[in-house]
Amino acid sequence: MAARGHAADTPALRVRDLEVELGRGTRRVVAVDRLSFEVAAGETLAIVGESGCGKSMTALGVLRLLPGASARMRATELTLGEIDLLSLSPEELRRLRGDRIAMIFQEPMTSLNPVLTVERQITETLRVHRQLGRSAARARALELLHAVRIPDPERRLQQYPFELSGGMRQRVMIAAAVSCNPDVLIADEPTTALDVTVQAQILEVLLDLKRQRGMALVLITHDLGVVAQTAQRVVVMYAGRKVEEARVRDLFANPRHPYTRGLMGSMPRLGASQGDGPRGRLPEMAGTVPVLDRPAPGCAFAPRCALADARCTREAPPLVAFEDGHTAACWRADAVIEAAHGVD
Amino acid sequence: MASTEPVLEVRDLVKHFAVRRSGWFGARAIVHAVDGVSFVLRRAETLAIVGESGSGKSTVGRMIVGLTPPTAGSVHLMGQRIDQLGRRKMRPLRRHLQLIFQDPYASLNPRMTAGRIVGEPLGNFVTESAAERRDRTAALLSRVGLGAQYLDRHPHQFSGGQRQRLGIARAIATRPTVVVCDEPVSALDVSVQAQVINLLVDLQAEFGMSYLFIAHDLGVVEHVSDRTAVMYLGRLVEIAQTRALFRAPQHPYTQALMASVPLPDPTKPRLTLAVEGEVPSAIAPPPGCRFHTRCPHAKPVCRTEVPPLRVIAPGHEAACHLLSG
Amino acid sequence: MADATPPAPHATFGAGLWQAACTHPTVAIGAALLALIALSGIAAPLLTVHDPQAIDPLNSMAPSTAENLLGTDHLGRDVLSRILYGTRVSLAVGTLVAAIATVVGLAIGILAGFVRLLDAVVMRVMDGLMSIPAVLFAIALMAVFRASVETVVIALAIVEVPRVVRLVRSVVLTLRELPFVEGAIVSGSTLPAILWRHILPNTLAPLTVQATYIAASAIIVEAALSFLGAGTPPEIPSWGNMMAESRAFFLLDPALTLMPGVALTITVLAVNMLGDGLRDGLDPRLQGRL
Question: How far apart (Å, rounded) are the C-alpha atoms in residues C163 and C215?
């Protein structure tokens, strides 16, 4: 199925200056800080970062699903195709979610209703958004279970979430999420809770669905391996901010931000023992993931950065554009490249 | 470097858990968590056990340290059989056999200070004055990269990586011979993982401990271990020198496992679907080779006969009918 | 990787109590109210010149005067001083029952949670005890022994022990599976050391909450028993006795019956506020598991 017709230059999802604030008063924390990104139909954008970097809050902010009492979101622009999400009423938004924009979560057990059968989980969305009758919805549900490659789908329809394995639950979640052919699918750590052999299967299903339906896929993950194998473009987040954005090949070939570089370096890679030398130490990044409730004026990564100078701790670096849409927020981006070449 | 002297030996370890199937009158079912696992851990060596969920790797670790009683088989620590000792006789041996937990949050008592947590094993095995113990605890903390100023802090004042350092300090406090590391870095952020891995490697070089390193992350395993054992559904399917195993995995499951890891390199080929399906239930594990339901090369014999672990190269064993020559 | 970190538990039990009082106003209000009530009971001789037992038939059923602020009852006894002295009985019964039930229940509960052989036997005995209605049991004990405050306390404590045992046992069963207790086992700590260092401190929070509920319930049951004439002996002024004695004159002066009732209500409310506040304020992690 093809994507609904957009003007060629209209991205499926465009986010400008998204801010998410948690708590109030002295406990106020900026979880996402002026984040902008866009994703085109048929494209996979990975948002990568560690715990507390704001990547999950970004997803909830875009869907405007933040818990109202304790969290607030702002943005200068938030458009889904031609639709301005910021101007919609809560009721209009609710009708849009699950229909034109959908989300899947890390732990399917908590987002599936434990007392409903698989059939009900999937047809619920269809019957709400598409007003399908029972048998039509059931036929569509079967079709969807085929699409996510669940073996023996007729039997699975009658099962409850607890009767399914983690991988099967995630497939059901995906089936329910894509049931209305959304333009944008946001997947928040969809394979983190799964075994590696099952992860490969689930990623394959997601990418296939994206290709067939021309969806835009926003994949939120902490795993650089998953990023490299699935995404076209990558946004790297650190302490609520975008520190780097690039096409996936450019990012891995030529990371501009010291954090991105450090993240890649500190990951033990498969096949690394095949060299002749003795087993070395992993290059480590000093310090720990920052706690957001004590923001410093400068670059959030400066305390952990080997290249940081006086300016880094004083002033937050702006995002600077390099070639081919590669941007990075680092005062020392040039030194990063030099340092890398010095080492190599 | 690793010597050949065995410090820990596990023979035909079996663990079956009884569970009740659904409903009031449901029959009692047996979970075959571990089914006949044997291996030797040598002095100053790191032996990794890898496997996916349900492989039984963590249960093996728990049986070794005596937190889960084995159904059958034996555990020998430095030549002495320890699996049937009972709480009281086991206690003095615990200073030689320690455990590092996966969860850096739940494995530290929230109401105790860092000093008391790390000093607990010292108090159990070393008689010394309070001041001496405090000095020794402070030295341990600084050895794992936390200064003495942390002595009086409580766990919730530490980050995940720092908590794991506390757990490591507690485990090495009595200078154990064997440390079972149960997924020691899998709960940590990537940027913190490297610090903890390096710390573990450094401590081993310094104190000559042997690690049984239980993990699911193949990249981490390849980096830290001398030898690697692969488990699938309660059985050991392959064990070899790490370098040999990662260069040329022999068992179809090991091959599938390695092919499934997404490489952080976009120029490498896209994900290949290495294996279909998921790990079957351990309540009714498949007969014969337990991997035959997912194995792309399965033959009729795989469905009926259990393949034994066989030496296929020096120091390289695998349990597969297809490798029998 | 989870973005949320678990809530920070309080480092020590005392710090937890203090923080609960600071963050949950019900704790502060309940505690202040209770302190006021306790103080008025203790300082009763200073607050009133009347002997609560002094009969003055000529001045019976008197309305409120400067001399007798809340008037007098049918025997001419000063109602205010009787209510003040009645505080002593209620609070003593509440505190003692809570203390005895908690200490005994804690000991049995920890044993049941840790010694598998004992567990089955103890828990069946507790189930048996729980099936006895508190009021009936107390009346039966009164029939056997003489009526006294001590007998009331013992009767109520016996009935409350099983609830504490159940709570402690469930907490212990949860705790003993937690990695930090396993960590202590692996560290070579002895069983008593594990109980003392790891189990006991982590049972205090839910136990304190339970103790407040026991106290509240004991205060009510004591009043009910005294009202039925099977509790505190009539020579001791207690709120239940006062209500029972003035019941006959309810139409004449309903205030005589209502005033001790109001005192009882305020006291129980204060105890329950304290308990509810502590439940929410103390270690939310463990509370969620129960």
Answer: 13
**In the structure, what pLDDT confidence band is assigned to residue C4 with cuts at 50, 70 and 90?**
very low
pLDDT tens string B161-171: 999 999 999 99
Residue matched to tokens 């085109």 = A40
Nearest to B223 among A225, A279, A285 (CB): A279
Chain A residue closest in CA terms to B255:
A197
Residue of A234, A270, A289, A304 to mutate for B, most B C-beta atoms under 10 A:
A270
Hey, is the C-beta of A51 within 8 angstroms of any chain C C-beta? Answer: yes
Instruction: Report pLDDT digits (tens) over C110-135.
Output: 988 888 888 889 999 999 888 888 88
Chain C's closest residue to B190, CA to CA, is C1
For C1, which of A50, A54, A57 is closest by C-beta distance?
A50
Would you say B167 and B107 are in contact if contact means Cβ atoms under 8 Å apart?
A: yes
More confident residue, A144 or B3: A144
Q: Please indicate whether, in this complex, the C-beta atoms of B67 and C8 are within 8 angstroms of each other.
A: no
Tell the residue number behind the tokens 């609904």, with chain if given: A4
Cα distances (angstroms) measured from residue C58 to each of C72, C96, C256: 11, 39, 18
Q: Domains for chain B: give ranges and CATH numbers.
A: 6-263 (3.40.50.300)
Identify the chains in contact with B, defined as 3+ C-beta pairs within 8 A: A, C
Express each pLDDT in B8-60 by its tens digit.
999 999 999 988 665 556 667 889 999 999 999 999 999 999 999 889 999 99
- C-alpha C1/C-alpha C17 separation (Å) is 32
Chain A residues inside the 8 Å CB shell of C1 = 50-51, 189, 192, 222
User: Computed over its alpha carbons, how large is the radius of gyration of chain A?
Assistant: 21
**Residue among B87, B124, B170 whose CB faces C183 most closely:** B170
pLDDT in tens, C28-81: 899 999 999 999 988 888 888 888 888 888 888 888 887 778 888 888 888 888
What pLDDT is recorded for position A342? 57
- Which residue has 């005192």 as its token pair? C263
Nearest beta carbon to residue B260 from set A200, A267, A272: A200
How do strand B316-318 and strand B235-241 relate by DSSP bridges? antiparallel
Task: Locate B255 and state its tokens.
Answer: 């091959």
Helix (H), strand (E) at residue B12 = strand B6-20
Q: Is C282 within 8 Å of C211 (Cβ atoms)?
A: no
Within 13 Å, how many C-alpha atoms sit on residue A327's CB side?
A: 18
Identify the bridge partners of residue A18 per DSSP, sorted by sequence position: A35
**Residues A183, A12 contacting (CB under 8 angstroms):** yes
Q: List chains adjacent to chain C, taking adjacency as at least 3 C-beta pairs closer than 8 Å.
A: A, B
Lowest mean pLDDT of A1-15, A158-172, A245-259, A282-296, name the range. A1-15
Q: Which domains does chain A have, with CATH numbers?
A: 13-231 (3.40.50.300), 255-266+284-343 (no CATH)
Q: Which of A260, A267, A266 is nearest to A246 (CA)?
A: A260
A and C: number of Cβ contacts within 8 A: 12
Distance CA C212, CA C216 (A): 6
The pLDDT of residue B87 is: 85
Q: Delineate the domains of chain C, giving CATH numbers in brackets.
A: 92-289 (1.10.3720.10)
